[in-house]
Design a protein that fits this description.
Layout lengths: L1 E4 L13 E2 L5 E3 L7 H9 L4 E4 L15 H17 L4 H27 L17 H19 L4 H13 L9 H4 L7 H7 L2 H9 L7 H9 L20 H16 L10 H10 L6 H8 L10 E4 L3 E7 L9 E7 L10 E3 L8 E5 L6 H4 L5
Antiparallel strand pairs: 1-4, 2-3, 5-6, 5-9, 6-7, 7-8
The structure holds fe (ii) ion.
Fe (ii) ion (FE2) binds next to loops.
Length: 373
């Protein structure tokens, strides 16, 4: 199974993982054989790539770090919670009360699932349409923040606080007009300032309700603050920031970078990591280090060029070593001459490294062997 760009999809290929709308509703289920009209629909909805049962690594499955149904339920609940905030005051309070109960109970499942394997690596891209981005993004941020919190050794109840805060971190965006949030062009100054008010809008929506504790307020209010003082809304510095918003900030930025947005395509994980490295003055370095433990710069299925003259496809990654995948060699680099398949684990070799990532269109089509199975 491998992530295949939509332009390379052909009728007859079999979908390996479900494609959803941003609110969690299914668009294409796993197991469906593609037809031309489905492919056109994917293009129309700006879906960039789809997981396909391919012939390059047919034996490799890519697992999510939490169960699919848990993720879908989380997106549904975050969606409901944020929409209920648009209701009148009385309804809003009862909705928030219910949302807190349901999200807390779901967080028990998520934390338990993530604690059952502390060495998880994120290999899966979140394939969703760019509509309703905030809901799936909030769930991703919660999962990534909890994983980071686990690596930092924090307690289960603190992990649940981080998760709840991350689920709700962007709730102030319900006040910001969608025309600004989804604007495909460059934002005007007043539009940028309006978006930058969402942490304050978020706090105003939940304050005085006696529903949420300090850590959750802190995440909603401070997840865009940076330890070098370059963030917003208050321009706080490191010593003013507690651990929770610092964890959430790293997860938030990473997921935003790898996600497709109306104004740009998502970056590849290794590109997002490079961007974050270049901005590292804004993030807590210990948090970033622990966060990186769970990342794969080259997720399973990525076609990589190695500095020993081979091209291969990533078949696994090891927790704690984001730049050292195991690679199944498919050809040599100069003429793309196919090679008898063998694997190199970069963890076991001192002098071999990835120095390039290939897009599908950069390799001969017959090499990728994308015939439907
Ligand atoms: Fe935000």
């Amino acid at each position: 199974m491998r992530l295949v760009p939509v332009w390379a999809l052909r009728p007859g290929m079999k979908v390996a993982r479900r494609v959803s709308r941003g609110n969690g509703a299914p668009l294409l289920n796993a197991g469906v054989k593609l037809e031309m009209e489905y492919i056109q629909q994917l293009k129309k909805l700006n879906v960039r790539a789809v997981y396909i049962h391919d012939n390059l690594i047919p034996d490799i499955e890519i697992e999510d770090v939490i169960l699919d149904q848990t993720r879908e339920k989380a997106i549904y609940l975050v969606n409901n919670t944020m929409n209920s905030l648009k209701e009148d005051d009385h309804k809003k309070l009862s909705s928030l009360f219910l949302a807190k109960k349901e999200l807390s109970s779901l967080l028990d499942d998520i934390v338990t699932q993530l604690l059952s394997n502390k060495n998880l690596t994120v290999n899966l891209s979140d394939i969703r349409c760019t509509d309703d981005y905030t809901f799936s993004h909030s769930v991703n941020v919660a999962v990534l923040s909890i994983m980071t919190g686990i690596s930092m050794g924090i307690s289960k109840s603190e992990l649940k606080d981080i998760g709840l805060g991350a689920f709700l971190h962007d709730l102030g965006k319900v006040v910001v007009p969608l025309s600004i949030l989804n604007k495909p062009d460059r934002l005007e100054e007043d539009e940028r300032l309006e978006i930058e008010r969402h942490p304050v809008y978020g706090i105003n929506l939940v304050k005085g309700r006696h529903l949420f504790n300090g850590p959750i307020f802190s995440i909603i209010h401070k997840h865009h603050e940076r330890i070098d003082g370059s963030g917003y809304p208050q321009g706080l510095q490191g010593h003013d920031l507690d651990l929770y918003p610092k964890v959430c900030a790293v997860a938030d930025v990473y997921d935003a970078l790898v996600s497709d947005r109306p104004y740009r395509q998502g970056f590849k994980p290794h590109e997002a990591m490079e961007i974050m490295d270049s901005e590292c003055g804004g993030y807590d370095l210990q948090v970033m280090q622990k966060f990186y433990h769970h990342l794969a710069a080259y997720p399973i299925g990525t076609i990589v060029g190695l500095n020993n003259g081979y091209i291969g496809v990533v078949v696994s990654n090891t927790h704690g070593y984001p730049y050292l995948p195991r690679v199944r060699i498919i050809c040599e680099r100069e003429y793309f001459a196919p090679l008898e398949s063998f694997e190199i684990d970069l963890l076991d070799t001192m002098n071999v490294a990835v120095d390039r990532v290939y897009n599908d269109h950069e390799l001969p089509g017959d090499l990728l062997n994308r015939e439907p199975s």
